[in-house]
Amino acid sequence: MLTRLTPRHVRGLPVADRPLLMGVVNVTPDSFSDGGRFDRAEVAIAHGLELLADGADLLDIGGESTRPGATRPLVTEELARVVPVITALAAQGAVVSVDTMRAEVARAALDAGAAVVNDVSGGLADPEILRVVADSGATYVAMHWRAHATEMQQRATYDDVVREVRDELSARIDAALAAGIEPDRLAIDPGLGFAKTADHNWELLRRLDELDVLGMPILVGSSRKSFLGTLLAGPDGVPRPVDDREDATTALTTLAGMLGVWAVRVHQTRSSADALRVSARLLGHQFGRSSATGKVIEA
Known about the structure:
The chain is built from nine helices and ten strands. The protein has helices at residues 41-53, 75-91, 103-112, 128-136, 161-179, 198-206, 226-231, 246-259, 269-282; strands at 20-26, 58-62, 96-99, 116-119, 139-143, 186-189, 219-220, 263-266, 289-290, 296-298. It is globular and about 45 Å long. 49% of the residues are buried.
């Protein structure tokens, strides 16, 4: 039986009676879902504004693909991709997150107006990133991670995936706190698809409440991922194409709303916003966009 999580929020970010929606803006040529579609700054900015209009609470801007097998861009390339987009969106009032594993990129993004560093490596790829976040007072999301994209699927070996992910995330929380990041500016992500098989992903979702003992808000990023494509494979065994996984993504957003996770990271926000409206109503709550103070400004 699925168990509802303890309600948690992050200081300085919007507060709502349902999970926050983090809209993905990949400024990359090679991301698994939308690589090349938003790799020009003006197109990425327009897409970000569209996600906001469709219900996103914050935007996650990334300049490095982390799909299995992806090669890393140069630091200068990553900076050139994300900084102009972050600058423009933050200037228009968006709450912006930077999806990066690099301290140098995190620092530049925060200077450009980002409020969140979403680090898929949890500080393992570049430990200096923890000090950068601590010094800035920004929010830090630590994801479960074992290796870079070129080798991560070779590390998908567990005796008990939930227990091991929990323990490894606990170590990343300790590292973040030791670096000076304040506990109420921390969140965690189980890292679906990162050094995980499809069965591992489903097990993590089924037992998400076992991560609740870590005492941190939980972000879930399942949008359009390959385990959904595998589940939806046709009679020929060919996985459902990425662009045809949105309905399954929305189903998991609905589940996230029922479970009460802190935030959901999605590529398309309108259908997920609708799903959260439905789950919030079913649970007897209002659906509204909230300010960082917790005051509901749209009900």
